[in-house]
Amino acid sequence: MFNNSELAIRDCFVVPYAPERRYYLFSTSVEEAWAIPPSGFHAYTGTDLEHWGGPIAVFRPPLKFWADRHFWAPEVHAHQGLYYLFASFKAEDISHGTAILVADHPGGPFEPHSNGTVTPPGWECLDGTLHVAADGQP
């Protein structure tokens, strides 16, 4: 169990999950922010926003995953019964971009949903998020 001051993380994003009466804390690990290749994304869980269990692995890149560095700033949003993780990814010859992962539960496991980035190729794009338009289209 960790308290907030003991976590070496940045880019934090908290998701309340009512069925379990707990929170899921997603972040970039300070230890892995510059690792090549990074191991993926982790989450911590807790009931009071101060004490956290974990970390638990929520995403491990599949073999031949297109990105090999800078797995940063995960955000998780519930939409139509699924959980979508938006995060920044990069590869040696591919600019930073936002890609989307999906899972049935906020604790994962998350799998690739988008085929690479959803941000424009060649642009350096960080910290994507979910936007749902007035007509209901994400």
Radius of gyration: 15 Å
**How would you state the average pLDDT, rounded?**
94
Helix content estimate: under 10%
Total strand segments: 9
Mass-distribution shape: globular
Residue ranges: pLDDT <50 for 5 or more in a row? none
Helix/strand order = EEEEEEEEE
Reported for the largest beta sheet, the result is:
5 strands, antiparallel
In whole angstroms, the N-to-C terminal distance is 36 Å
Number of helices: 0
Strand order of the largest sheet: 1-5-4-3-2
Structural class by sheet pairing and helices: mainly beta
Please report which band the strand proportion falls in: under 5%, 5-15%, 15-25%, 25-35%, 35-45% or over 45%: over 45%
Describe this structure in words.
- This protein has strands at residues 2-3, 9-17, 22-29, 41-46, 51-59, 69-79, 82-91, 94-103, 111-112.
- The chain is globular and about 40 Å long.
- It is built from no helices and 9 strands.
- The model has no long low-confidence stretch (mean pLDDT 94).
- The strands form 2 sheets. The protein has a 5-stranded antiparallel β-sheet with strand order 1-5-4-3-2, with no helix packed on it. The chain has a 4-stranded antiparallel β-sheet with strand order 6-7-8-9, with no helix packed on it.
- It has 138 residues and is mainly beta.
